[in-house]
Amino acid sequence: MIKSVLDYMDITAARFPDKAAYIDEEKTITFEGLRQEVNKIASGMLPDAVYGEPVLVYMAKSVDCIEAFLAVRATGAFYVPIDVEMPAQRVRHVIDTCRARLIITRRCDNIPEELTGACKVLYMEDLLASPEAVREEELKKIRARQIDTDPIYAIFTSGSTGVPKGVLISERSAINFTEWYCETFEFTEEEIFANQTPFYFDASVKDIYATLRCGSTMYIVPQKLFSLPARLVQFLNDNKVNCIDWVPSVLCMIVNFRTFEKVKPQYLKKVMFLGEVMPTKQFNQWRRALPDIKYANLYGPTEATGDCTFYKVNREFADTEPIPIGNACNNTEVMLLKEDGTLAGDGETGEICVRGCSLALGYYNDPEKTAKAFTQNPLQKNYEEKIYHTGDMGRYNEYGEIVFVARGDSQIKHMGHRIELGEIETAVGSVDGVDRVCCMYNKNTNRIIAVYEGAIDSKEIIARVKDIIPRYMVPNQFVQLDSLPLNMNGKIDRALLAKTYTEA
Amino acid sequence: MKDEIKAILEEICPDVDFEAEEALIDDGVIGSFDVIQILSELMEAYDIVIDADEIEPENLNNLDAITALVEKKIEERE
After folding, report:
1. CATH classification at residue B66
2. Is residue A344 scored above 70 in pLDDT?
3. What is the DSSP code string of A405-431?
4. pLDDT at residue B9, as a whole number
5. I need a labelling partner for A206 at 20 to 30 A (CA). Which of A70, A140, A483, A488 fits?
């Protein structure tokens, strides 16, 4: 029985020792090479890593980064992937929230000094170059102790109060997902994946562990290519990539710039999209250009291991018709709950709630937020059973498939990132000179708009918030008002502001 | 026109100094989503069509190159 992704690693290394597992611009690693390097790195981490505690992986997306993830698991700790572009102050929040004491990085990742002071830092180059032997016995003992409810990773997502929250996922959830994913899409060792999603997004779990389970090969696509559509498709052809799971923004870019008139993917057989709504118009352009490909829409929050529903496209859609998010994945039930806790009926809208194996263990070190998002299933009165409230609203269509309707709160999807507008407001509001602020999102123009009160120029605000929040969260437009309008309750009149600035 | 384009770019990437940066793509100063937004905005603002094979670093690495690309596309249109 598989109880850790490390079991996938061992099994596949025995089946396909010399086959290429992961490939980036600098490095190709075989499955056996991976196993050896993972054990070597883990051995060097043993004196500092603690079973069940977090280890931050501060690395740019790379083969090394995957090795670090697995090595952390081999020590019994769980990994926390960190975006190297993230402002140091935000990383500090992550360190404080998860009380991390250990970071693994590489010298080329240039970790800021203020972070090295907060935790012990291990450099992967040193661990790999160490003359000490692999500590086989100790690693074996840890493996024997590991159970599938142990955490595998924590991924930090935007939090509405300004502090990111760490979604803690168990091995069981990751394995359950990987098994379902590989079976549902019939992956084998013949699969060649091209990874797009950053490793600090849970979507990357799909490629990484499907590769490890099936003995497939995964290319890490050079980041620059996602700005250059013709070269991107050429990359797929050069490497005979036959399966991708990418965010819709990238798939849209390819057709919006008429890439297929210049170059078409020759080997692609399966295309999955996830992370945001796929516009049907662009999807239809893909389908017309590449009718033989199998397409699927995947949906799910980080709290449900990134995926809780799927829809394999099996019929035609008008450009104005939404592509359904489909039905629940294996070992998961998805319910549409109305505010009174009862199930939404035909045609009714309800909050998408999830129960089952995919559910996160909770938010790390945050029982309050955990209790709010993971609640007792209102349909189960007789024993304790948690469900997760996604905050997304959905309804059933005539085929019995779930269709995403809207967000129920102030969370947005901007450039593929899940963002709480509250976190941006907290950051902007923390700048001296800003008295009050309200952030909104214009879906038509994909712009984040900050309306604020205060005697400070927007350029100054931008310069300051860049150190607090990632650049994709920095508002695109600032509007300075003498005073923000208030509603009858004395609160900022968000509805009026939204009408004024996002519906123009 | 350069100033107009700069204003468009600054609205999409308010934290980037478009006067100073010389390798926006090659140095990863602007990400893929920024590029998509910038090009879409320019195509709409100037009623031009930019094709996939023109989306190359040499056409996008700095403000002058982007301006030259837009000017060329406007000329082709006329």
Report:
1. 1.10.1200.10
2. yes
3. EEESSSEEEETTEEEEHHHHHHHHHTS
4. 92
5. A140
